[in-house]
Amino acid sequence: MENMKKALLVMDMQLSILSMASESPEFINHVAKAIQSACEKQIPVIFVVLGFRNGLPEISENNQIFHAFKKHLENVDMSNWSAIHPDLSPEKNDIIITKRRISAFSGSDLEVVLRSQNIQHLILTGVATSGIVLSTLREAADKDFKLSVISDGCLDSDQEVHEVLMRKVFPKQAEVISLEDWIM
To answer: Which of 3, 47, 132, 168 is 20 to 30 A from 161, alpha carbon to alpha carbon?
Structure first.
């Protein structure tokens, strides 16, 4: 099991999303340290961003979450909206995956990239714990990936929901670890 090829997923670390999640410098610092540790361990870093075409033709009126903010984004330059926080900027060889829904797998080529690289163990970081982290964890578990979640590398606007997921839900399908444990 320890010889499984790993990848660190850095999910929804866009300025536009972080601004809605009341991000803290400490949280960004934690994710930056997780990225640095992955690089030192020669573990690929894969950034997953939420992105749409200009005008958001991918958003259906049936999608309650995304349709609620479609009007606000219709005239926004989506390439700027998808920009990753500058303190977490991808390196030249880092992979950037664009997804169209909450899960990192939905509407993206993430699974193709993971399978082509023979990656079997995913280490998750992201915003929000109750959004992309939960959805990606569930889907990845169904796809038979081994999973770890860096608890302080995830953020949610509701701290109680974050704690319940980390203590009661995620451990059923993933190893929940601290940043300190990941760096060691």
So the answer is: 47
d(CA 79, CA 110): 19
pTM of the model: 0.91
User: How many CA atoms within 13 Å lie on the side-chain side of 138?
Assistant: 11
Strands in 175-177's sheet, in edge-to-edge order, are: 95-99, 45-50, 5-11, 119-127, 146-155, 175-177
User: Residues 82-112: pLDDT tens digits?
Assistant: 889 999 989 888 999 999 988 999 889 999 9
Distance from C-alpha of 167 to C-alpha of 131, rounded to nearest angstrom: 16
Measure the CA–CA gap between 20 and 145, rounded to whole angstroms: 30
Measured distance between the N- and C-terminal CA atoms of the chain, rounded to whole angstroms: 18
Show the CA angle centred on residue 131, arms to residues 125 and 133, nearest 5°: 25
Token code pair at residue 66: 């995304």
> Concatenated DSSP letters for 15-44?
HHHHHHTT--HHHHHHHHHHHHHHHHTT--
Q: Is 81 helix (H, G, I), strand (E, B) or coil?
A: helix
Instruction: Compute the distance between CA of residue 88 and CA of residue 179 in angstroms, rounded to an integer.
Output: 16
Backbone angles phi, psi at 13, to 5 degrees: -90, 40
Contact 105, 139 (CB under 8 A): yes
Cα three-residue angle 140-146-152, rounded to 5 degrees: 85
